[in-house]
Specification:
With about 200 residues, the chain is mostly helical. It has a domain of about 80 residues. About 65% of the residues lie in helices and about 0% in strands. The chain contains twelve helices and no strands.
């Protein structure tokens, strides 16, 4: 049986600003103390620009993502280095297999054949294909499918992979330093997610 997909990215997309705050506090500690970070989130000392009803949900989602992160990605995001948004996008592709596989099987395929406009039909075609082997996808409601599509498209736009207005796809400009970090880590799937085809094959 296929491992169930995590679709909790629908909680807020990339959560870029919130992740910067959490990452900076994470790195400021000699030993990561997630309970202390959680207390600061609940008190409003962290994520105070976020609605109180959403803070805990965002904190939990970011903490789960960090379990899949390289240390250099957390530092990259915390310090808002050039390409920080892309590092977060790669982390999300790694953590959420649904998103990573969509990048690999739909986005990269479309760009390889010169089809650079992403459509809702592309999403539903991918979704139905995956639902054949993932019962959890067959079980969700149509409104949940629409939300997954909307948030996934927003994440692509936030990462610079898709123009939010025209839905045109393009490979993002990735800082060479970030590419080199992924190469040194042997993380070639990350380069694939960034549409760095030559980097992924080198």
């Amino acid at each position: 049986m296929e491992k169930p997909y995590k679709l909790s990215f629908t909680a807020g997309g990339l959560l870029y600003q919130q992740t910067i705050e959490i990452a900076a506090r994470y790195l400021s500690q000699q030993e990561p103390d997630w309970e202390a970070i959680r207390t600061q989130v609940l008190s409003g000392a962290l994520l105070n620009a976020t609605r109180a009803s959403s803070r805990t949900r965002y904190y939990l989602e970011i903490r789960r993502r960090f379990q899949s992160a390289h240390e250099f990605e957390i530092e990259w995001i915390a310090n808002e280095k050039e390409g920080a948004r892309l590092a977060l996008f790669v982390l999300c592709c790694r953590h959420y297999d649904f998103l990573g596989e969509f990048m690999g099987e739909t986005i990269r395929h479309k760009m390889a054949i010169g089809d650079t406009i992403l459509t809702i039909a592309d999403f539903y075609s991918f979704f139905e294909k995956k639902a054949e082997t993932h019962g959890e996808l067959r079980a969700i409601t149509e409104s949940s499918r629409r939300k997954a599509q909307t948030v996934l498209f927003r994440m692509l736009a936030e990462a610079g992979v898709m123009d939010p207005q025209t839905k045109r796809l393009s490979a993002p400009i990735v800082p060479q330093a970030l590419v080199e970090h992924y190469r040194r880590a042997g993380d070639y799937p990350a380069l694939m997610h960034l549409l760095q085809v030559e980097g992924a094959q080198s």
